């Protein structure tokens, strides 16, 4: 059966409305596939698009950003999926393999006509909801997903002993947890989150302002939750969860430095799992670290020691000659600046590597995401 193919531009009001309708029909209602959340997370100069196909009563939805490639000549662009977990989602298809072949053939033709050089996809951790990908993939690092189809006792015994000890300590210290699904405690969250970002010296892209969170509330009503620890009348730790129909995703969070000894975030994460379980969701995606095997990854592993899942990316080149030319130009920029070019660090697409700021003339040293 031939599918009905569409390429939607979220900047077009009619396309955006069609996208939202399709998202609302999807059984997973994946937060990172909603156009309004994707828009809030857009990269520099990215145009938000979605390739869709309907086959009978089945559907495919693939959100992505289309980016111009600077100084690459006329009509040269590349693709990157939105921040978080994405890729081509599917549901209700009679034959996933046949539909995938048809979808990717149409997509490849569109990419050639549109001057797309390469594609970088951050895949969902739930492989059963993803369309088979026709290009190379790479396992980047380990993420952790907690299975919530358990009893309350199994949930408790399924975390590492140090987590149980920290939860007991938080409770003994009088820490209690509140769950806010309406954004009423946003100012408390902003205070904690911005303090955490400052302490960690995070890059500007992660320092979301109040308007970002107001936009998130408007985009996903009923699909977010602030899980917050209160101690001595003050919110001292908080995690923001994004919610699909069947899973919760840790998104952003932080803890006041002065409350570390009370271990409030261990209690926040444990109570988040319990709350998600009682809401009928079967998984909690904690994510991974900033770098493989770092302290943050080890901390998250404590809540799901048997829930290791590889975080995988898709990396495809549509125009090999153009790609090679762009990589050579980037290498020349590094050589001119006297900067080392690391061949094996896994960066993709290679031509978007940036010369380290300390190697650039001061007037050119900028940070872009």
Automatic annotation (TrEMBL):
Pfam families to which the protein is assigned, alphabetical: Acetyltransf_6 (PF13480)
Q: What residue stretches are annotated with the BioF2-like acetyltransferase domain?
A: 162-301
Q: Does the keyword Endoplasmic reticulum apply?
A: no
A GO BP entry = peptidoglycan biosynthetic process
**Record key words, sorted:** Acyltransferase, Cell shape, Cell wall biogenesis/degradation, Peptidoglycan synthesis, Transferase
Q: Does the record carry Transferase as a key word?
A: yes
InterPro entries recorded:
Acyl_CoA_acyltransferase, BioF2-like_GNAT_dom, FEMABX, PG_Glycine_Bridge_Synth
Report the GO molecular function annotations.
aminoacyltransferase activity
Belongs to which family? Answer: Belongs to the FemABX family.
- This chain belongs to which protein, by name? GNAT family N-acetyltransferase
**What's the source species for this entry?**
Candidatus Nesterenkonia stercoripullorum
Q: Identify the taxonomic lineage of the organism of origin.
A: Bacteria, Bacillati, Actinomycetota, Actinomycetes, Micrococcales
């Amino acid at each position: 059966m031939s599918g009905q193919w569409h390429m939607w531009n979220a900047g077009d009001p009619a396309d955006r409305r069609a996208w939202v309708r399709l998202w609302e029909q999807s059984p997973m209602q994946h937060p990172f596939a909603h156009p309004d959340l994707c828009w809030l997370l857009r990269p520099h100069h990215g145009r938000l698009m979605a390739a869709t196909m309907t086959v009978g009563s089945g559907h495919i939805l693939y959100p992505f950003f289309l980016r111009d490639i600077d100084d690459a000549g006329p009509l040269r662009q590349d693709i990157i999926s939105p921040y978080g977990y994405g890729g081509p989602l599917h549901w209700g298809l009679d034959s996933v393999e046949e539909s995938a072949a048809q979808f990717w053939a149409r997509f490849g033709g569109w990419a050639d006509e549109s001057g797309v050089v390469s594609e970088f996809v951050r895949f969902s951790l739930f492989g059963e909801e993803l369309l088979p990908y026709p290009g190379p993939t790479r396992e980047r690092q380990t993420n952790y997903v907690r299975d919530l189809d358990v009893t309350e006792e199994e949930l408790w015994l399924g975390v590492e002993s140090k987590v149980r000890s920290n939860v007991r300590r938080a409770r003994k210290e009088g820490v209690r947890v509140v769950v806010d699904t309406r954004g009423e405690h946003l100012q408390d969250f902003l205070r904690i989150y911005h303090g955490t970002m400052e302490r960690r010296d995070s890059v500007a892209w992660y320092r979301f302002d109040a308007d970002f969170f107001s936009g998130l509330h408007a985009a996903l009503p009923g699909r977010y939750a602030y899980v917050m620890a209160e101690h001595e009348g003050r919110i001292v730790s908080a995690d923001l969860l994004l919610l699909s129909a069947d899973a919760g995703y840790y998104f952003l969070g932080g803890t006041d430095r002065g409350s570390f000894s009370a271990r409030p975030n261990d209690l926040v994460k444990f109570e988040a799992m319990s709350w998600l379980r009682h809401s009928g969701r079967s998984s909690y995606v904690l994510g991974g670290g900033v770098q493989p095997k770092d302290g943050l990854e080890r901390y998250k592993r404590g809540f799901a020691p048997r829930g290791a899942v590889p975080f995988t990316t898709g990396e495809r080149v549509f125009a090999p000659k153009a790609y090679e030319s762009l990589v050579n130009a980037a290498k020349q920029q590094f050589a001119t600046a006297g900067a080392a070019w690391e061949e094996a660090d896994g960066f993709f697409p290679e031509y978007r590597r940036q010369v380290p700021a300390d190697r650039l003339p001061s007037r050119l040293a900028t940070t872009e995401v």
